[in-house]
Write a structure and sequence with these properties.
268 residues, alpha/beta, 8-stranded mixed sheet, globular
Length: 268
């Protein structure tokens, strides 16, 4: 009887773990300071709205807090690290998504538009803002902190997981929604199409809302393994981190261990 119960438990655990796909590549693009209602249904964002129809749109997705920086830290390390402002520079240590992937023999890179060079430690360079680039706060990860000019045009050369941060002119922080939408179409549409045929996943999300909607933001998944539709389950940045960790068999970092896992998005 005990052996039978153990066998059934192992089968059940295997079935649960098998529900999540394992993409060859994930690209996560983070936009700035816009609520769900400012983006979804807005004719000034035609590419994003078309993308939402191609993939999974989470209608109850939320930022963790305000202002920007702790949201990026939450997504990258499963914790706001006690940071409640955009103070810069920070010097942080401890595990994060990049370090977990590297230890596992996988890869990570962060690509920030307008950052002047690899491993740049400054807080501001033109429209580049370090507060939107969490990897810059771990000095040992400087080699994986890249300018967007290094983003591969051959998508097979992408790391396992990639963060993309447009600069403040193009992430909807300083520029318009239409400008941000056009940047995404120009720079991300190629990967979105490629992902549909090459076991890739694209995630487009926002760090926070504009303070008007309880921090409700738009989050979109697009890829070969995604079931298109609208999903009402509540998720946040910890949920996004958790699904990536579970896809690659990584330990759940900090608050991601308490987050609700995504469900229903992946075809069986």
């Amino acid at each position: 009887m005990k052996r039978w119960l153990l066998t059934m438990l192992l089968v059940t655990q295997s079935a649960v773990s098998g529900e999540l796909p394992r993409p060859d590549h994930i690209v996560i693009v983070i936009e700035e300071n816009k609520s769900f209602s400012q983006i979804i249904g807005n004719p000034e964002a035609p590419w994003i709205n078309e993308l939402a129809k191609r993939g999974a749109l989470f209608t109850q997705s939320y930022g963790v807090t305000h202002p920007s920086q702790p949201n990026y830290l939450a997504l990258f390390s499963g914790s706001t690290r006690g940071i409640s402002s955009n103070t810069c520079p920070l010097d942080l240590d401890g595990d994060n998504l990049a370090s977990q992937l590297i230890v596992k023999g996988l890869s990570f890179a962060s690509y920030s538009e307008s950052m002047p060079g690899q491993g740049y430690e400054g807080c501001i360079w033109g429209a580049y803002m370090r507060k939107h680039n969490p990897i810059a706060n771990w000095k040992e990860l400087a080699a994986w902190n890249q300018p967007f000019s290094a983003f591969p045009t051959d998508y097979t050369q992408l790391p396992t997981v990639t963060f993309v941060m447009p600069d403040q002119r193009n992430d909807m922080h300083d520029g318009s929604i239409a400008q941000g939408d056009a940047w995404l179409k120009k720079n991300i549409e190629g990967y979105a199409q490629w992902a549909m045929k090459h076991n890739g996943l694209l995630i487009v999300t926002w760090d926070e809302d504009d303070g008007s909607s309880g921090n409700r933001i738009a989050t979109i998944f697009v890829g070969q393994m995604v079931r298109p539709g609208q999903y009402k389950q509540r998720i946040d940045h910890y949920s996004l981190l958790r699904v990536i960790e579970e896809m690659y068999g990584l330990p759940l970092l900090n608050e991601s261990a308490k987050a609700q896992a995504t469900s229903g998005v992946w075809p069986r």
